[in-house]
Design brief:
By secondary structure, the protein is of the alpha/beta class. Helices cover 41% and strands 11% of the residues. α1 packs across α7 and α2 packs across α7. The longest helix has 28 residues, at 18-45. Bound molecules: iron/sulfur cluster. Iron/sulfur cluster (SF4) is lined by residues 134-135, 138-139, 226, 228.
Length: 313
Amino acid sequence: MNAPAEPLALPPGTATGPAARTRAEREALKLEKRLCRQVGQAIADFNMIEAGDRVMVCLSGGKDSYGLLDVLLKLQARAPVPFELVAVNLDQKQPGFPAHVLPEYLAGLGIEHHIETQDTYSIVRAKIPEGKTTCSLCSRLRRGILYSVARRLKCNKIALGHHRDDMLQTFFLNMFFGGKLKGMPPKLTSDNGEFIVIRPLAYVAEQDLIDWAAHRAFPIIPCNLCGSQENLQRKQVGDMLREWEKKHPGRVESMFTALQNVAPSHLMDARLFDFKRLQASGVPDEAGDKAFDNENFAEPVGRLFGGVTLVAG
Ligand code: SF4
């Protein structure tokens, strides 16, 4: 079942005269179309959802997961193939967690949902000494619980609300701190091999999710209830990317396109390209080495959609 149509909710501080309202409504409509197009494109490009799938949509109460569920419901209503969505929230018993918010929201939508209540907060507090980072144990516990919920609900796929900026941040975190060219995959098997994990917001910019959450007036639950320190490395990388984008508009889009446009022969991983047995073929190859020629980087590239590059924006 799709989310009921509701009146447009304008972000606080928005001018409310008739002209301003019409403009805001037009912008909201454009944003909705962009979100649906980008999510639909990611689903198609990576074959994320197929007929008969039962997809568990993980809902934390943050803007990203609300946006994910919202857009998936819209796409489900017009999808050519039937699939099921089950919204799931894990109440980890963090102090101050407003346990009524998500059940009320989901009941209002009239969709299938499940709230799993497990006090991982107390376990984490008991096991991790004061002042130490709690996230790794907390997320390991959460992962195990979500797998068992997916199994119980007979879901074969798990949808997460990570977006384009999360994926780029992860790529840089792996490079800066892990010595790896490795990002966050749009689709992969879960580490226990049992489910397919999908990230339908892979092409969506975080700012669009912020704007959409304000427009739809989602009942956002704060994400700092556990009292954990924010991940400083991720914050630094996020700030770095925002700064780059401010100084060089289009850079984020170009870097994101690069993740879909990899040339193993021009990197140094001998597991991906057989440098040792390489022989000259005698056949000209545009992708071959151009010796001293400089590459021309006049324009940032647009986005690669299904093999076709579109201009950013
Ligand atoms: S921020 Fe809090 S809830 Fe999130 S993983 Fe870390 S400890 Fe868990």
